[in-house]
Automatic annotation (TrEMBL):
Binding residues annotated for acetyl-CoA, in chain numbering: 399, 405-406, 424, 442, 459
Positions contributing to UDP-N-acetyl-alpha-D-glucosamine binding: 25-28, 39, 92, 97-98, 120-122, 159, 174, 189, 247, 352, 370, 385, 396
GO-annotated cellular components: cytoplasm; membrane
Gene field: glmU
Homology family: In the N-terminal section; belongs to the N-acetylglucosamine-1-phosphate uridyltransferase family. In the C-terminal section; belongs to the transferase hexapeptide repeat family.
Domain of life the protein comes from: Bacteria
Names of the cofactor(s): Mg(2+)
Protein name per Swiss-Prot or TrEMBL: Bifunctional protein GlmU
Compositionally biased residues, Low complexity: 488-501, 526-539
Chain positions covered by the region annotation N-acetyltransferase: 271-545
Subunit structure: Homotrimer.
Pathway the protein contributes to: Bacterial outer membrane biogenesis; LPS lipid A biosynthesis; Nucleotide-sugar biosynthesis; UDP-N-acetyl-alpha-D-glucosamine biosynthesis; UDP-N-acetyl-alpha-D-glucosamine from N-acetyl-alpha-D-glucosamine 1-phosphate: step 1/1; Nucleotide-sugar biosynthesis; UDP-N-acetyl-alpha-D-glucosamine biosynthesis; N-acetyl-alpha-D-glucosamine 1-phosphate from alpha-D-glucosamine 6-phosphate (route II): step 2/2
Location of region: Pyrophosphorylase: 1-249
GO molecular function, a single term: magnesium ion binding
Organism of origin: Microlunatus flavus
Length: 545
């Protein structure tokens, strides 16, 4: 279920052919945002306000899309080049009013034969369907101008729709120019219109700045059309949000919440469980499948997609992440990553770009991955940094393993083969290849390749200093415990020197190197009783599987 445009606009059918032009007004200052960034670049559900306006315009497939820019136009133009390279921009150097803005737009276009739509860059919820309906009504009625209106409780600040005795539209009067009686009108001008080109041209030519602001008002074109004996239409929209502009950050937050509420509602109806809609944010560009569960504190952004049966959250943010069927992603921050079907991620994982986790693979707790391809059923369960590494299927990475990929100058990659086993607390210093079916002993620093079937161990051998506790910590709880343990063990286990008065020289416990025990090779989680006979285990994770 994906949309035609990132903001979710679908292409409506337009009876009577495409409109000639959509003019998007976007030159205003947006002072109340109090921002060094153009108001139009502020985002609703992850997309700039302007991109909603452009997507709606584009969905109508007009011959021309013209965006009138002015304030912070470098920012706006750069953004337009990214989101709508097919749109033309025209510069309105001085903001002399909405009528002037449309004059400037028309000057940049060839002679237009078909209808001209005018919209605003800062009215993000207006849909292409609404625009199409406005055009359809306009065409059916054969009107010269049609305006989209709304009935609101508080019309302060808006232009009012003035109607005659027969309910016909006489014109629009601005709030500041309105009479006491006109101010009581609750039908407001959204600022969205469709014009028959002749009426628009004639009207624009007649505009004069004879109003409180000394501007050229586009709204006056309606009055002129009416005076010339042409019909003017007004279509009231039920969905008030679609005509709402954003002027400050309070409105921005409010609109974000509304867009999100609608998006979640749509997904819930499509079979997604949203446990807490108030703390769940899903961008319009996200794609979800049936039986996905979103737990509280989840934010899904960009081109994120989640396949059937997967569970995301709580407290998870995914940006441009592809999640496979039945996967589970818990308390995770991820971007530009792929999570395979049945895989499990988190809690507390950080998936950076280029992470690809195979089917039923695992990226566990306090694990950071970057440019890491982790094979099917492979596991990176605890406390690991995996950067620039390829880990083969069924491999097991112990707790606290670091794939060191950066020497301060260049980044290099490492590879761990199929069903290989890297012991806990090892550092694999790239570039290194650990072959298929190889082992790395716990606590190793691996700087050279390891062949198939080989065990690599690189660390100091353990040495025990008998009697050290009795001598250096005498009288402590530890010393008492040692004494009890030694007494219980009997004389055979009493180490020589335990009662001696002087420190023995600190020598290797094994004078002749003994073969490494399994326990020495790997484990962090040895069984508590008899370590020497236990099987190796990098972590408890192996037992989980
Ligand atoms: C305008 C309408 C008003 C309507 C309201 C709806 C006029 C005279 N009034 O009022 O009837 O109720 O919108 O929001 O049209 N712009 C330019 N160049 C300019 C002036 C404005 O590009 O010279 C753009 C702005 O960036 C904005 C839009 O046009 O996107 C509306 O301008 P704004 O100044 O907000 O108009 P309002 O006074 O709110
Ligand atoms: Ca406005």
């Amino acid at each position: 279920m994906s949309s035609a445009a990132p903001t979710g606009q679908q292409t409506p059918v337009l009876e009577g052919g495409p409109v000639s032009a959509v003019v998007v007004l976007a030159a205003g200052e947006g002072k109340r945002m109090r921002s060094s960034r153009s108001k139009l670049l502020h985002e609703i559900a992850g997309h700039s306000m302007l991109s909603y306006a452009l997507d709606a315009a584009t969905a109508l497939e007009p011959e021309h899309i013209v965006v009138v820019v002015g304030h912070l136009r470098e920012q706006v133009e750069a953004h337009l080049a990214e989101i709508a390279p097919h749109a033309t921009t025209v510069v309105q150097t001085e903001q002399r009013g909405t009528g002037h803005a449309v004059q400037v737009a028309l000057e940049a276009l060839p002679e237009l034969r078909g209808d001209v739509l005018v919209t605003y860059g800062d009215v993000p919820m207006l849909t292409a369907e609404t625009l199409a309906a406005l055009v359809a009504g306009h065409r059916t009625a054969g009107t010269a101008v049609s305006v989209l209106t709304a009935h609101v409780d508080d019309p302060t600040g808006y232009g009012r729709i003035v109607r005659g005795a027969g309910d016909e539209v006489l014109g629009i009067v601005e709030d500041r120019d309105a009479s006491e009686a006109q101010r009581t009108i609750h039908e407001i001008n959204s600022g969205i219109y469709v014009f028959e080109p002749e009426a628009l041209r004639e009207g624009l030519a007649r505009l004069r700045p004879t109003n409180d602001q000394g501007e050229l008002y586009l709204t006056d074109v309606l009055g002129f059309a009416r005076e010339a004996g042409r019909a003017v239409g007004a279509y009231a929209i039920e969905d008030r949000w679609q005509t709402e502009g954003v002027n400050d950050r309070v409105q921005l937050a409010r609109m974000n919440a509304e867009v999100n509420r609608r998006t979640l509602e749509r997904w819930m109806r499509a079979g997604v469980t949203v446990v807490d809609p108030a703390s769940t944010w899903v961008h319009a560009s996200v794609d979800l499948a049936e039986d996905v569960t979103l737990l509280p504190g989840t934010s899904l952004e960009g081109a994120t997609s989640v396949a059937a049966g997967a569970t995301i959250g709580p407290d998870t943010t995914l940006v441009d992440v592809e999640v496979g069927e039945g996967a589970s992603v818990v308390r995770t921050h991820g971007s530009l990553a792929v999570i395979g079907a049945g895989a499990s991620v988190g809690p507390f994982a950080y998936l950076r770009p280029g992470t690809v986790l195979g089917e039923r693979g695992k990226i566990g707790t306090f694990v950071e991955t970057k440019n890491a391809r982790i094979g099917d059923r492979a596991k990176v369960p605890h406390l690991t940094y995996a950067g620039d590494v390829e880990i083969g299927e069924d491999a097991n990475i112990g707790a606290g393993v670091i794939f060191a990929n950066y020497d301060g100058v260049t980044k290099s990659s490492s590879r761990v083969g199929r069903a290989s086993f890297v012991g806990s607390d090892s550092t694999v210093v790239a570039p290194v290849t650990v072959a298929d079916g190889a082992y790395v002993g716990a606590g190793s620093t691996v700087t050279g390749d390891v062949g198939p079937g080989e065990l690599a161990v690189s660390r100091a051998r353990q040495r025990n200093v008998p009697g050290w506790v009795a001598r250096k910590r005498s009288g402590s709880k530890t010393a008492a415990a040692a004494e009890e343990a030694l007494a219980a063990a009997g004389p055979a286990d009493r180490a020589p020197g335990a009662d001696g008065p002087v420190d023995p020289p600190e020598v290797e416990q094994h004078v002749v190197p003994a073969p490494l025990s399994d326990q020495e090779v790997v484990g962090v989680d040895p069984p508590t009783s008899t370590p020497s006979t236990s099987t190796p285990s990098s972590t408890d994770s192996e037992r989980e599987s």
